[in-house]
User: Which sequence fits this backbone?
């Protein structure tokens, strides 16, 4: 199914794990730079979900500038 998968890539940026750092919420929790909705929307596109239907499957996908991460 599908074509070749681009392996050995990291999507998003790994946050500096420091309290008070740029991605810290001041509670010891870090904000991710890539959402699971983006990963799953990319997979759904690969499985054949039309880009016009992604918002039906993933209602929050419109909040991200890049819904398709391009790893497939």
Assistant:
């Amino acid at each position: 199914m599908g074509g070749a998968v681009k392996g050995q890539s990291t999507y998003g940026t790994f946050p500096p794990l420091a309290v008070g750092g740029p991605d810290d919420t001041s509670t010891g929790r870090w904000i991710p730079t890539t959402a699971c909705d983006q990963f799953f929307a990319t997979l759904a596109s690969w499985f054949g979900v039309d880009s016009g239907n992604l918002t039906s499957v993933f209602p929050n996908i419109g909040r991200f500038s890049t819904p398709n991460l391009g790893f497939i």
User: Anything to note?
Assistant: Residues 43 and 72 are 8 Å apart (CA to CA). Residues 36-46 form the longest helix (11 residues).
